[in-house]
Design brief:
This is Putative malonyl-CoA acyl-carrier-protein transacylase. This protein is an alpha/beta fold. 43% of the residues lie in helices and 19% in strands. The protein folds into two domains: 232 residues, Malonyl-Coenzyme A Acyl Carrier Protein, domain 2; 64 residues, Alpha-Beta Plaits, CATH 3.30.70. The chain is globular. The model has no long low-confidence stretch (mean pLDDT 94).
Length: 313
């Protein structure tokens, strides 16, 4: 079978993030490994999911634990991966077969790169703003530029993520409301991910990744929201992960690409169900693709049972 694992990004906030793993000893054991590498108990710090110093580590740990827990069920099948924002880092770590220590080091380093902006400018507040409406991409880019913001993610045909200083985003929001906007939400990320605010840090994440990984090929091909194709080469993906810190991501086009490949099964690892919603928004026809949205399950046993029902033994 052709299987795709999709990893969500930051912005999900649930103090019971790890409840899915409560009854699974293998998952809890791996989560303990990650906690040891992080130097604090991940399980007991989910209340800090809106803290930019902790959010990426918590979400990354959830995704890596979940992927590790289901990996044996997928071992005899073609498995590709795709990740939205932070989720692409998790997808990369899975594809590169990163150790728990290297995984935490990578997510921790990315966290420090991104929080360095707010720590060097403590008088400023930053965030991401999600807006929905029938905007042309160039139109929304012009409005962003006018108010010193930047388009961070093209999420779907009508959903866009904008990054910038909070004071500028509020003024930008007023202008968008006079155009085609139907909904808006501040994501409480506290960092302007995927915008030129991080341009001065170009090449730093790549150099760190290069110090950690020496193999040439990814174990699982990855979809890139910058290159808009499958990536097989680890070096190429590391460069892309660096560029994505300060470049607009085109997730809308990635969704169309994923649909074109006609997977037998897509597993939305989450957290949350946003990736399933965005995929369905992009789909005219999902053909014969089954979708498992992990957020719909209350236990890891339920997720595993559903996978077993779909994948031939």
């Amino acid at each position: 079978m052709k299987i795709l694992l999709v990893f969500a990004g930051q912005g999900y906030n649930d103090s019971e993030l790890f409840k899915l793993f409560h009854a699974d000893q293998e998952a809890l054991s791996y989560l303990n490994e990650l906690s040891a590498a992080a130097g604090f108990n991940l399980f007991k710090n989910t209340s800090r999911m809106e803290d930019p110093d902790f959010a990426q580590l918590l979400i990354g740990a959830y995704q890596l634990t979940l992927c590790t827990a289901i990996s044996s069920l997928l071992s005899h099948h073609q498995v590709d991966v795709a990740g939205y924002s932070l989720g692409e880092v998790s997808a990369f770590l899975v594809s590169a077969r990163a150790s728990s220590k290297d995984a935490i080091d990578v997510i921790g380093h990315r966290t420090r790169l991104m929080t360095s902006l707010i720590k060097s400018n403590p008088q400023e507040e930053y965030d991401l703003l999600a807006v929905t409406g029938k905007f042309d991409v160039e139109e929304i880019k012009c409005i962003c530029e006018k108010h010193h913001g930047a388009l961070a993610i093209i999420a779907s045909e009508e959903q866009f993520i904008i990054g910038g200083k909070l004071s500028d985003l509020k003024r930008l929001l007023q202008e968008l409301a006079a155009h085609h906007m139907t909904r808006s939400k501040f994501l409480s990320i506290h960092v302007p991910s995927h915008t030129p605010f991080y341009a001065q840090q170009a090449n730093q994440f790549y150099q760190f990744l290069r110090s950690k990984f020496a193999v040439s090929r990814l174990n699982n091909p990855m979809f890139s929201p910058l290159a808009l194709k499958k990536i097989y080469d680890l070096e190429e993906e590391m460069h892309l992960l660096d560029s994505e810190l300060y470049s607009t991501l085109d997730w809308r086009s990635v969704c169309h690409l994923m649909i074109e490949y006609q997977y037998d099964l897509i597993i939305d690892l989450g957290p949350g169900s946003a990736m399933t919603s965005l995929l369905k928004a992009a789909a005219i026809n999902l053909f014969n693709t089954s979708i498992i949205t992990v957020a719909n399950f209350s236990s890891l046993a339920g997720v595993k049972n559903q996978i077993r029902q779909i994948i031939p033994g």
